[in-house]
Amino acid sequence: MSEHTVLPSKYGGGPHGLGDPDDRSLRKVEIEVMIPKKMREIAKVEKCTEEVKQFTECCKNNSILMVVKCQKQNGELKDCLTKWYNDDDFKKRCREEYLKDRSEYRRTGVPVNQQKQRLPVSM
Hints:
The protein is mainly alpha-helical. Helix content is 69%, strand content 0%. It is elongated.
């Protein structure tokens, strides 16, 4: 007896019913939301570290007045993030990382953020 679902088989197949791990097609929400989110996260940690540090420090030092006092740092952070957001090579890298993470999730059933938490911490 076959199971009927509303979704196409590529979204519901695979070893854990989470989709085909080898499918590389992207849904609109992945293109417009998930991949840009990954781009922001990676850019903040790898590409715009100095800008993030300066903005964070400014916010800590100015608490309630940060909206007014940290405009310069906020603008520099936005400029840095925008620069990387518009970089085609960076965009491709983030897309590939997203597809790799999604494939691993579909293969194992374990969300990638939980997999990273399980890794041993090296000193």
